[in-house]
Amino acid sequence: MRKKLSVNNKLLSEEQIIQKLETFCAYQERCLADIKKKMKSLGVEATEEQFFIDYLKENNFYNEDRFVEKYIHGKLSIKKWGKFKIQQQLKAKQINSTQIAQELNNIDDIVYLETLNNILLKKNNVLKEENLQKRKQKLIIYAQQKGFELDLILNAIKKLKLA
Fold first, then answer.
1. How many other C-beta atoms are found inside a 10 Å radius of the C-beta of residue 156?
2. How many Å apart are CA 59 and CA 89, to the nearest integer?
3. Residue 5: φ, ψ to 5°
4. CA Rg, the chain, in Å?
5. Is the pLDDT at 119 greater than 90, yes or no?
6. Cα angle: 129, vertex 110, 68; to 5 degrees
7. Distance between CA atoms of 13 and 123, rounded to whole angstroms?
8. Which of 43, 45, 62, 74 has a CA between 20 and 30 Å from the CA of residue 126?
9. pLDDT tens readout for residues 63-117
């Protein structure tokens, strides 16, 4: 039985580390970078990381495809992020660009455009700007910060007659 030293200098057995990693992954979907960070906090040596990663994969606690799918769905439906912002955040989590592109292509175009329209309408309702050009500019900047593409934003503003 291998012993590990956690951050608080408490010895953890292999079984305890597995139990902590299982709990960590069961709480919500995790990417490899998150799991590696957790292992480091548990005192797992770099040479033994792969053992634990393989265990989590084999027991379906970790699945990168499932993580990317859930991440995209959550950020679009809850945070109302656009594809560009989602892509940047996934890249920051060291997810493969090809995998990101494949999953982003699975987003339903109608749902995506409805999300954009809804955030533009909500923002338009709270803007106090009277000048239509400035109002349009503020809407564009807001939607771009949310990660939506400029051409879609301009089309939505025109279609919704917001400026």
1. 21
2. 27
3. -110, 120
4. 21
5. yes
6. 100
7. 52
8. 74
9. 999 999 999 999 999 999 999 999 999 999 999 999 999 999 999 999 999 999 9
